[in-house]
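User: Structure please.
Assistant: Input sequence and predicted structure:
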Amino acid sequence: AGANWIWSRYGVGQDKVQAEHMYFRKAFATKAGKTVKQALFGFSVDDSGRLYVNGQYAGECDMWSAGALLDITEFVTAGQNFLAVDGYNKESGYAGFVGKLEITYTDNTKETLVTDSSWKLTKTLTTGWEKPGFDDAGWEKPDQVLSYGSTPWGTQVNLAVDLAPPHSAPL
């Protein structure tokens, strides 16, 4: 399955989400006995977002239609890892975060992780929220889970890649 635009709307219409930050977390583990060759994370946030991997700042996107494709290999460790995104909806209206992690191992096998209903989120900023070991047990699941390609975004995200022209996102 592909990536989804996730957020928590708290009962308001899709086009009436408040201007606010939403904080997202997702744990993932690399496969035992395998070595990561490359880890790429493509994402977009309507309106902007900052990515942290295992508590370290890894990059950002400043415009939802541009998104970002980041090589996060240096941040991924063997075993348990954490992705954290600070999503910012700058003005009242549509809001969402969509992303896909693709890990390639040295044996050229791959695995992917996408934004879906298993991610945790909150709109409350708490010190250390982006770090491994943070207790997110009280965080909630998204109440908005819309497949990539859904209205209003469609398939308009073009991931900005360093030294390469933007290309249509394979989210």
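The chain has a mean pLDDT of 91.
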